[in-house]
Write a structure and sequence with these properties.
The protein is an alpha/beta fold. It has 9 helices and 7 strands; from the N terminus they run ααααβαβαββαβααββ. Strands 3-2-1-4-5-7-6 form a 7-stranded mixed sheet, sandwiched between helices. Helix 1 packs antiparallel against helix 2.
């Protein structure tokens, strides 16, 4: 089935679904995506640039958040590519990757199986199985616009981050009419989001969840939000 036809069918279903059924449809979408998520073409067109920029941003703050015995959660970790790269670079940091797609998790587990500082688990971002204040950093990359319960997800992230800890969220978020139009047209060709947010909308969501937005910058087709608890 062509991706455009598949995406259109899933989007039509999502428009009239509850949170639970929306998540079920999202799982189906990422089951489909898992077959070529790590392909050279997809990386060349989009992901490799984002991976490199995330690595750069983390390195810039490594002296604060990537100290020995610190912990980082990559929520909605997908195939575990960022966990894989970060764990190799920071072997004294403990990394956890969480996702609710069985197919994505299988790839992530295989990819990181030889890394002693990595744990991959099945978890929903709306109900994370961790104690309060258990992570120094939470990373959420190119996933937030898929979350069925965004406010609840952010509150869960806030709950598990230590006071003064970092939320590093990367997501498409634009404010101008032209940017929104381009994102709406081209973004929905390749995926079926819950919602594409504006920078202002995301900033308000962060603040309501108890985060202070420290820095925002745009790169490629997305925005990077650096938030402090």
């Amino acid at each position: 089935m062509a991706w455009a036809d598949y995406s259109k069918r899933i989007m039509t279903q999502k428009l009239t679904t509850t949170h639970e059924s929306f998540e079920g449809l999202t799982k189906k979408e990422f089951k489909y995506w898992s077959r070529f998520y790590d392909s050279r073409l997809v990386r060349l067109l989009y992901f490799e640039r984002i991976y490199q920029k995330i690595l750069q941003a983390v390195r810039e703050r490594a002296h604060i958040y990537m100290l020995p015995d610190s912990k980082l959660l990559d929520t909605a970790c997908g195939t575990g590519e960022m966990i894989f790269r970060l764990a190799k670079e920071f072997p004294s940091v403990a990394f956890v990757g969480a996702d609710f797609s069985d197919e994505m998790l299988a790839i992530a587990r295989q990819k990181t199986s030889h890394l002693k500082n990595v744990k991959i688990i099945s978890a929903n971002v709306s109900n994370l199985p961790f104690t309060n204040k258990s992570f120094d950093t939470v990373l959420c990359s190119d996933a937030f616009h898929h979350f069925a319960e965004p406010e609840r997800a952010l509150k869960e992230m806030n709950r598990i981050i230590k006071t003064g800890g970092l939320l590093f969220l990367i997501d498409p978020a634009f404010d101008t009419l032209f940017q929104k139009l381009i994102l709406s047209i081209f973004g929905k060709i390749v995926e079926t989001p819950k919602k594409y947010y504006s920078r202002r909308e995301l900033t308000l969501l962060f603040q309501d969840a108890g985060f202070r937005v420290d820095h925002i910058f745009n790169y490629y087709f997305t925005n990077f939000f650096i938030c402090i608890k």
